[in-house]
Amino acid sequence: MTATMTAVVYTALDAFEVRQVPVPAPGLGELLIRVEAAGLCHTDLDILAGRYAAELPRIPGHEFAGTVVDADPALRSRIGERVAIDPLIACEACRNCLRGHPNLCTRGQAYGAERDGGFAEYAVVRSDNAFSAGTLDPGVAALAEPFACAVNALDRANPSPEAKVVIVGAGPMGMILSIAARGRGIEDLTIADRVPERLERASRFGATETVRIAHGLTDSLPERAFDLVIDATGRPEVVQEAVRLLADAGTLIPFGVCPPGSELVLDTFEVYRRQLCIVGSFSLNRGILAALDILRQSVYPLDELITTRFPLEQGGDALAAVGGSDTVKIQFDPMTRIATQ
Ligand SMILES: [Zn+2]
Ligand SMILES: [Zn+2]
Q1: How far away, in angstroms, is 45 Cα from ligand 2 center?
Q2: Does 274 lie in the same domain as 239?
Q3: Are residues 31 and 103 in the same domain?
Q4: Domain range spanning residue 181?
Q5: 295-316 pLDDT tens trace
Q6: Does any domain span residue 167?
Q7: Is the residue at 75 inside a domain?
Q8: 229 and 251 Cβ atoms separated by less than 8 Å
Q9: How far does residue 102's CA lie from ligand 2's centre (Å)?
Q10: Per-residue pLDDT averaged across 187-210, rounded?
Q11: Widest CA span in the chain
Q12: Which pLDDT does position 11 carry in this prediction?
């Protein structure tokens, strides 16, 4: 009889179940991971709603860490290792891969989207996608994926340490971008949000100045003042206003995921005359090692970023909690069972 495990399964669009499924077996070049922490984010909601292409049924979860418990016989030396997962599998042969953009691979797949991911007790991943997390706490190690997304954004914009930076939106990615920017030597970092509690938290996660937004962005923030403006709200109207914050030769990263079809009105004369730059950043580009370095060297209370941990059995509650203003990062802890009250 095959062993079974508890997993969150997206069965169809807008439908999921927590159910028992067979424990997967590692094939050639693969590892079996005992999942110890798996983060949730908006992408998981987008997959469920059909806004992000994935094949269903599917076990979602692309931000996870755990311990290797079984492996392809050639990889048995990795058993016992704690690992953080890079969810992307690129073909390494298409034009995008060859130009250094494996995250844009035209034949790419991801654990949690085209392959089963980490919202389960166990997951199979390719050995190449599992990076040693050493002694990092599993919850912190599972932050490596979103941190690697922040690393990609900062690599794309490549701000100098003297840059004046503003992050608009102090949600989970705002905090992660903040820590990553400080880790890169940025010393002038403003974080803006509407919620005072989030700003209080931002001041403990790297912001050198916090600004409460009451009405429009430019009512509270100076125009033409920032060399790097990162939107972490994903709201098109905020991105539109954020353009006005750009200093000459400034760069805007619309990092938050706006709905497809969102438009931005630009004065192209101003883009020309002031040398403005709009830079996209999608997912992560092999940044897990850099992310693990940031996590290891962090002076911030990283465990406070994980505000809620759910057992897999409470999959619905966990998905419903994503994006709440009183939460930062929500994770599954598949090692925990619901206590019988
Ligand atoms: Zn994510
Ligand atoms: Zn490719």
Answers
A1: 26
A2: yes
A3: yes
A4: 148-278
A5: 999 999 999 999 999 999 999 9
A6: yes
A7: yes
A8: yes
A9: 6
A10: 96
A11: 70
A12: 96
> Relative to the alpha carbon of 98, which ligand is closest?
2
pLDDT digits (tens, 9 = 90+) for 138-156: 999 999 999 999 999 999 9
What distance in angstroms lies between residue 35's CA and the mean position of ligand 1's atoms? 16
CA 182 – CA 205 distance, rounded (Å): 9
Same domain, residue pair 137 and 161: no
Ligand nearest to the CA of 104: 2
The closest ligand to the CA of 46 turns out to be: 1
Looking at the structure, tell me whether residues 11 and 25 fall in a common domain: yes
Ligand 1 centroid, distance to 267 Cα (angstroms): 33
Report the separation in Å between the CA atom of 98 and the middle of ligand 2, taken as the mean of its atom positions. Answer: 7
Closest CA to 184 of 165, 211, 203, 212: 165
CA of 40 to the centre of ligand 1 (A): 6
Query: Total structural domains in the chain?
Result: 2
Nearest ligand to the CA of 103 is 2
Mean pLDDT of 194-206: 95
Q: From the CA of 318, how far away is ligand 1's center (Å)? A: 14
- Residue among 1, 329, 323 nearest 176 (CA): 329
CATH number of the domain within which 82 lies: 3.90.180.10
3-state helix, strand, coil in the chain (%, to 5): 30, 30, 40
pTM exceeding the 0.85 threshold for the entire prediction: yes
pLDDT in tens, 206-237: 999 999 999 999 999 999 999 999 999 999 99
